[in-house]
Input
Amino acid sequence: MRRKDIIIYILLTIVVLGLMILGLFLGSVDIRSFDENSLYIIKHLRLPRVIMSVLSGAGLAVCGAAYQAIFRNPLSDPYTLGISSGAALGASIAIVLGLDVFFFSIGGFAFLFALLTVWIIIRIASVGNRLHITTLLLAGISINFLIAAIISIIMVVNQDSMDKIIFWTMGSLSGSKFSDIAIVLPFVLIGIVIIRIYARELNALLTGNDTARSLGVNVEKTKKIILFFSTLMIGVIVSYCGVIGFVGLIVPHIIRLLVGSDNRKIIPFSIFGGIIFMLVADIISRVAIAPSELPIGSVTAVVGAPFFIYLLYNAKKKLNQ
Amino acid sequence: MKEAINDIILEVNNISYALREKNIIEDISFSLKKGDFYSVIGTNGSGKTTLLRCISNSIQPTKGNIRVNNKLINKYSPKILARYISVVSQHSEFLFDFSSFQVVMMGRIAYQKLLQTDSEQDLIIVEECMKKTSTWHLKDRSIKQLSGGEMQRVMIARALAQQTPLILLDEPVSSLDIHHQFDIMELLRKINHENNTTIVIILHDLTLALQYSDNILALKEGKLTYFGKTHEILTKDNIEDLFNIKAEIIDNKHIIAQKNEIL
Output
């Protein structure tokens, strides 16, 4: 690693720690003194929430970078492709069926439905052995429509599960517990490590399947491994934090502008970018209309959706040239 | 005529490739010798690209088999095969920004382990290959900003970085002006002579095929109609048969063609 990179990583770590500390003190209840009450809030409510922001931010950003490489599509993100919604549907179904008493059944359902969504969008967008870029996005967006409709129906039919299900559709970090973190942490860690291991292969995949194969990449195997682990991360993150969109779109995109397209750099920097983005979004969600809270998914969407439109607009200009 | 078995780098045995039960190429057999320069010619739709994609293992022939160094091509792992065969395609689209240097470095993937950083040797090889193709001055330029000729030279540098005894090229000069066409052909001849690399190139320009290649593979309607020494294959009659045009060959160097009026 070059010295310049090390300095940047140290600076980023300082920013992350600063934001984490800020996240512990800001919120609907002002922390003025360290009495017993405040310490309880910090330790049991805000600390797990801040840690969950870190994990979900890192995981979502890295997944976005991975999907963008696998699908060769700079507009890919777990949310725009409908994968997060698939996971939310799986989680909702597990709740309605009363399966949440079993360990990891919600996470497992979320993962299976996310994987099913990946399979469906690939089927829809495949032309020969190529993925059609706009069709892929259309497929993802249509799946979002479909799942939103199914989830509304589930909510109306099961009024008593409504609150729990709304949580999945808008995203929330407020109920995070240390026991949740213990489950999310290993999945995010393993997922990120695996994706980083295949970063060079992901670079080659960006040049096309045939080219990657002729360069010596086992294309099918690499894609399966990356899709499996990134989707597993999405399933687990969504089952504990709900759908938080656009993190995986915005973060890798900005990182790419700063450091170029080499995934060996994009992935580690996206970890930091995702964490910073999520910590800031979480703080905004808590202080914007305090003492009430905004769903974090709506905060990221307010920034993310216009960004997505901007990217579409640019892509259109390029196509018309 | 006896050929030493280890002189043969690639052997194609009776391959066909069918799409929706229609044969794109049919019952093709030939073998490639080490260090030779082959041009593949034929009309559009005659199956040239399909043949090349079979040889590069991008697609599997529906019948027949291909052997590389006397071993079936589909028995190789992608990594090992990438040390034998490299490919330069007609168009390379880059949706993401990579520097020319990074693109050429991708040619070293076949020699790198997962997570391994680019070694000192990789850096030396990439520099050598870029200097040989006169692209070293472009190393920090984004691949998206290169002209057609520069782009193809970078792609050839990447193929060189793979250090393969065989390079396949699918119409690398079709979209270039005449000056850059000769540039690329001269470069390929240099690689062919200096590294003893076998070159297989799809060409539309018969004059280039005549001037640069030792051997010709001529395809017509999916079949290998002619295969042999360039001067024996590129005759007036054969060209007329392949392309349905009237051809004149001048000084064994130039081919002048005009539309065949007798239809």
User: Anything to note?
Assistant: Residues 282 and 296 of chain A are 6 Å apart (CA to CA). Chain A is about 75% helix and 0% strand. The beta strands of chain A are 126-127, 130-131.
